[in-house]
Amino acid sequence: MSGKKPWKTNWNQKQAEDGRAANRREQDKKQNGKAPEKNTPVDASLAQLSLEDKKPPPATEANPETTRTDGSGVETGSGGSSCSKLPASTTRSSVGGAWGAWGGSTTVARGNKPGGTVSTAGNGKASKPLQTSKSNVKARPSIPASFTAAASSLSGQKKLSEDEILRNYLKLRNTIDTSSDSPFGELCPRPGYGEKGRVIQVYANHFAVSAAKPFYLYTVVFEDSKPFEKRTQKIRLERLESVHPDLFQMTAMQGLQIVSPLRLENEASWPFKFTGSDDLSENQDNPESEKRYDGYVQFSKDIPIPMLLQHLAGSYTPGLDIEFMVQCLNIVLGDYPRSQRHLNPILNKYFQPNNPIPLDAGIVALKGFYSSVRPSAGQIQCNINVCTSAFLEGGNFAIVMTKIIRKYGTPNSLAKALPALNKLFKKCKVTHTYTGTRKTRTVYSIEQYTASTCTFQIKAIGGEGASGAGYVTTTVLQHFAQAYGLPLRYPDYPLVNVGTREKPINIPPELLEIEAGQRYKGMDPSLTEQMIKLACEGPQNNRERIIEEGLRTLGHHVNLNPAGLPLSTQFGISVSTNMALIPARVLPQPAILYGRKNVLKGSPKFTIFALNLSPLEGRNIRDWLMKPLLSECVRLGMTSQAMDVDRMKYKFVPTVAHGAPNTIRKEQIEQRFIEIASHPGKKMILVILPSKDRSEYALVKYLGDVRYGINTICIQNRHLAPKRRDMVPTLSRNLLGNIAMKVNFKLGGTNHMLYTTPTFLNGKVMIMGMDLTHASPGSLRGAPSIAGVVASCDSEYVNYPASLRLQTPKEDGQGEIISELKDMVRERLKCYQLTNKNALPTAILVYRDGVSEGEYLKMLNDEIPQIQEAWRKVKSELGTPAMTAQMVKITFVVVGKRHHTRFYPHNSKIPSSSTGPQENCLPGTTVDRGITSPYEYEWFSQSHKGLQGTTKPTHYVVLKDDNALSPDALQEITHNLCYTFARCTSAVSVCPPVYYADIVCERGRHYLDSIFCPSSADLKNAQVNIPPGTALEEVPVLKRMQLENIKKDTMDKARSIWGGGVHENLKKVMFYL
């Protein structure tokens, strides 16, 4: 094995061969009277290839193993994805060296190597293998001959523009009969590009990627009977690389996946053997600690990059697995930053741990860069952006613990700090070296006892102990002093348990080191606010950081040291250092009706109750808040006739004792709600909260929305507290106006609306927003997901009542699908029916949030049919048979907010009519060219004005469009709706229906606050507890049973708290704002 090379030819030899081949081609052209083309883009030559060209020429006796050279000189086989062997002139014996030739590989057996139990990337917690999501993709239909002929007739141009690519694609779709299985897929095709608006140019943080060679994916397989974790996987791979360095020559790795431009010597697999240990802390020189590992590198799949380029350049290829090739390109481009020891890689983000920014006690923020490959019209691009995230502070555990204890008090009052310590450091990775070797442990819990108070029994040295059984009782403090000669400096600090509940291993914190670079996910609102301020940088600064620092950090800068060039250059990949300059359009701002004389209307027959939970006196609240607020309501025209402030009723309920224990306060707050609910007529409660405390806000919303059906508005005490005792606070007009707007729409009024609605919104269309939120880190195990659906019920498209549902957690197999969508849509249709004189909408425009690209087909196959079934159900209830009823037309748009595309003005300063020069792009900036797919119906829209930092555009993708809306029409509707958000007088960043759905899901989380934000005691009770003495083989089964019981108990508790959901009184109003 030691002398055998895994790959066919080496890089230098193949590079020389490619150079000689290129020279021969140029000489041939000159002899034929044709000058060679200069600086021809890669995609220009590829654009000339049609589907007809992809057919291999017939084999001949002289060349039985046919090869083909594409426009870039790349040898590929039939279709470019499964290539034939090299001719006999480049066989293994004649080439020699380690690496194989560029080009395809033979068709190989995909089966596992016989013998042994295979342990691959899919077992344990190792990284997932790169593969297509078969559950979402139907079997690919065969390509009709007519398709190939049509594609061939439409190609032939040197380089196609975006319009030409789209025009040819649409011609192909019209040529082929798509009544049965279609080769085009199921997503809605792009019907065209938008034209409305003022045309401008903007920079996008996308960089052109040049790539022309095919790659190959391999998987490292260990013949091991036991699954192994990610840390073990890393140890094994490092050991394998040290034993067989030739195997990792010119390879990019992620987990157990290997991407290489070369082929294995053995074509199908290459076996290996080595000895080592899964634990780096064990003595590698001790033969007893070493184990033998057998395995092999197995061919997985071709990566036909040339075919991807042809596809993007206009030669549409049905069924091409673009997502898979993008993942492989990300592995190659990410190899350089992953190999840099000064960077901390997390997925496709690369942070710089050398410059931590203190965020809170024990928490720091790190800045870095995001990188991801994106396909676009005619080329591949790399999206690069700045990023900031929270991490645990690395270093000595005791020193970090000191900072946290000081935040809560002195070391003698650890009870306050202990819950925070457990929340922060549970499952944290720590290391220690006091035993003489470096060991890595995982924190199970921070205990209540300390080194000076914790006692245990240990074997006595040289005789029997006090117990007479050879054991003596000692403290942890004494043990470390006697056994290791380590006197402790912090004996009164809580011990760190790095074992389990059944078998604790308690170590003093000063002997532990917290590993740097561990991401912290338990962000509370205050930390999130700090993070936003920290990450807030202007567009000019962000753009300069990306170009000057980001490209160098990621290995794309032209001035990199030649000795340290990234591996991607050996793959024939290069990334441009120039940001993409793309066309954009600025859509005009719509006219808005706002004010008493236009549309504001409400009812004077209601009572506002003031519930004071703060230390302020009641008379101050009456004079400082209630009277100015009611005056503002009248000023804004909340009545149809002029009326006096005294006619607007407001009442006070007894103040809840401030500073009382939580249980007593909760009882008192609920008692106030009972008293208010007993009053007749419409009512609303204005609650003055003492602070930003989440639990009290959650209780108020739960009692108001679920238990008693009363609208509530919360205001924090800090807005009313005077700066000095002798001052009377004056509430700003903005604050009073914001509260008045909430009062108005919670009572069914209208604050503002579009002066002229787009043609499609003719009053017979229902606009719907949908979202699904999942449990966050720190929630109880088995915490449910919450689905929210809002839908318009008026002709002005400003009133969006909501439906809420609980459903099983995401990890239980439901994923991103809303399981009870049919019933929720039925509720919304019934509400629309009651408001519109028993009529149903003729069309539904859906905006769906929270969906990744891999979930698009699930939306088409699962959620859209549920909407259609709900419409049939309501239609049949009106007396129309479901089968004969004409189906409602649905336009389904996915809204993406979690992306990293940013736009920057072409000129650093652009004029603004109201604020003068600014760095962000203007509101209404719309992009559907340059960085978008040539085939999918998508666009980016920046509808809002950036007040601070760099504005983030929203990404819209159309999955279904029965209404045949043109890009201009749909982009105008989406942009104009952003100006109708109920509690804001300017445009918002996301289309309001989906914004409302996101807010209503968050409101549902407040109802289950004890599950999503549990106490330390609740978290401890929800842990798996294996009784002492349990047989080793029974532990996994027992753990699984206990975990299932814990999840079931959590779900039962959630359903009990949830009850019937939102109260009947509030189902027709926007209670959630």
Q: What do these coordinates show?
A:
This protein is of the alpha+beta class and 1073 residues long. The protein has a 16-stranded mixed β-sheet that branches. Strands 3, 5, 6, 7, 8 and 9 form a six-stranded antiparallel β-sheet that branches. The protein has a four-stranded antiparallel β-sheet with strand order 15-23-16-17. A hairpin with a 2-residue loop joins strand 10 and strand 11 (349-351). Helix 16 (662-677) packs parallel to helix 17 (694-707) and helix 19 crosses helix 20 (856-877). The chain is globular, with a radius of gyration of 33 Å. The protein starts with 10 loop residues before the first helix and ends in a 15-residue tail after the last helix. Mean pLDDT is 78; it is low at 10-20, 34-129, 131-157, 596-604, 640-648 and 909-917.
* Beta-strand percentage range: 15-25%
Rg estimate, integer Å: 33 Å
Distance between the termini: 69 Å
Described by strand count, sense and barrel closure, the largest sheet is: 16 strands, mixed
**Number of beta strands:** 39
Low-confidence stretches: 10-20, 34-129, 131-157, 596-604, 640-648, 909-917
| Silhouette | globular
Mean pLDDT across all amino acids: 78
What is the helix tally? 25
Regarding quaternary structure, what we see is single chain
Structural class call reads alpha+beta
Helix content: 25-40%
